[in-house]
User: Which sequence fits this backbone?
């Protein structure tokens, strides 16, 4: 790592994890309890820099926008703000977390789902100017919010390119809650919305945004989407002179959970030719935005859990952890396969065990993938559950009255910080209505 730098260069590998000293893991387990999350700042830095570097083949301005919804821990938001990241924000609450953590409104791409006028007024009043709209009502609400505040927002249109996508979660199906069609007979189309925005004196037209899905398996879907946007630009240019200044490719850069996936470099090299075609058609360079939540933070975090019991069902060994899908919801939602590793385990020819969580729910079983190392799994041993930095903390649930675990953060200088306290059971009780039971607050 360069002296005085927050970012560093590292050899690119298909599957890389932060490593931790066994004594440190056990010390932290005693200090903050298990399970706990452990986040590594250097891994966030590496993945952010790798994603940005992959798209440096584009000669125009490139920005990487971290999707706050993936993990809004203030330590992560503060670090990414300091290295100059932009941010994909989708709620006023996410914006609150970002600004309180040191983020700048100038670096926000605000992509709402609800798109209310009051929401737009609130985010614009805090300095946000780059707005992505996903409906004609949302567009007019953003225009009106700017007018009431006497500010000029840059409004881009989120389109649904309606292309075939191979991804864990798809967003570009024929009819989607996200975006508008590129063309159509009713006003709810990018073609008609762009022309309205070009004639609106109180706004600046930015360009287009699309998102194909999460864990994208085939980058050729980008080629189809970009070709459709190119044709839309050509169609509008036949009627009037205009240029886009902004194009957001959305997220989707996949994380290696033990199965080979396209790298950022492979995706960028696949689509750079089509992006250059857009530049030629547009007549100028535009700011190219690449969003990512999962890719930037997933590998940065492990959950450290303890084996609390084992048993044999016939000849099959089952180990029980003190964690469950209430802390790692993608186990149930997406049947996510997280790499598992017994801390201090020794290699043997043991058959891999079944790994069960602590919940009274038959879905609370961890799939054991080829990357998992579970030899020596016995009660008292710690188990690392890897790649849990995205969409885990944000989905923490109090199932079985379980409190939120602690989060420990290892900074780039190697020092460890408490990034979230373990929730107290009494606090959870009060939060879930204990104080209201005591005080009997009437609503009607």
Assistant:
């Amino acid at each position: 790592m360069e002296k005085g730098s927050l970012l560093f260069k590292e050899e690119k590998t298909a599957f890389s994890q932060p490593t931790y000293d066994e004594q440190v893991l056990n010390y932290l387990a005693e200090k903050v309890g298990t399970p706990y999350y452990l986040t590594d700042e250097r891994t966030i830095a590496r993945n952010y820099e790798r994603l940005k570097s992959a798209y440096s083949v584009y000669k125009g301005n490139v920005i990487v926008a971290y999707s706050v919804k993936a993990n809004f821990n203030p330590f992560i938001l503060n670090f990414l703000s300091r290295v100059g990241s932009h941010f994909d924000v989708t709620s006023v609450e996410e914006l609150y977390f970002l600004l309180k953590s040191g983020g700048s409104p100038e670096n926000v791409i605000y992509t709402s789902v609800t798109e209310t006028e009051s929401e737009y007024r609130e985010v614009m009043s805090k300095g946000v100017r780059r707005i992505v709209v996903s409906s004609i009502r949302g567009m007019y609400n953003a225009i009106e919010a700017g007018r009431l505040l006497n500010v000029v927002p840059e409004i881009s249109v989120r389109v649904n390119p309606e292309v075939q996508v191979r991804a864990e979660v798809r967003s570009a199906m024929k009819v989607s809650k996200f975006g508008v069609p590129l063309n159509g007979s009713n006003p709810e189309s990018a073609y008609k919305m762009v022309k309205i925005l070009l004639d609106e004196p109180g706004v600046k037209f930015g360009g287009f945004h699309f998102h194909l899905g999460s864990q994208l398996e085939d980058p050729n879907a980008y080629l189809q989407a970009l070709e459709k946007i190119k044709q839309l630009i050509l169609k509008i240019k036949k009627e009037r002179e205009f240029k886009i200044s902004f194009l957001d490719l959305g997220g989707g850069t996949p994380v290696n959970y033990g199965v080979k996936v396209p790298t950022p470099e492979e995706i960028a090299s696949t689509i750079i030719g089509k992006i250059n075609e857009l530049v030629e058609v547009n007549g100028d360079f535009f700011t190219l935005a690449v969003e990512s939540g999962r890719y930037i933070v997933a590998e940065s975090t492990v959950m450290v859990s303890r084996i609390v019991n084992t048993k044999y069902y016939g000849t099959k060994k089952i180990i029980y952890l003190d964690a469950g899908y209430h802390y790692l919801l993608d186990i149930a939602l997406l049947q996510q396969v997280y790499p598992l590793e017994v801390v201090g385990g020794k290699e043997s020819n043991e058959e891999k065990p079944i790994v069960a969580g602590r919940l009274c729910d038959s879905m609370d079983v961890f799939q054991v993938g080829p990357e998992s190392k579970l030899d020596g799994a016995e009660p008292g041993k710690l188990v690392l559950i890897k790649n849990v930095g995205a969409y885990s903390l944000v989905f923490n649930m109090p199932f079985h009255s379980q409190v939120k675990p602690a989060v420990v953060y290892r900074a780039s200088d190697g020092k460890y910080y408490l990034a979230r306290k373990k929730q107290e059971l009494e606090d959870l009780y009060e939060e879930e209505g204990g104080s209201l039971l005591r005080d009997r607050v009437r609503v009607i």
About this structure: The two ends are 61 Å apart (CA to CA). Residues 42-294 form a domain with the TIM Barrel fold (CATH 3.20.20.10). The chain is about 30% helix and 20% strand. The chain has a mean pLDDT of 92.
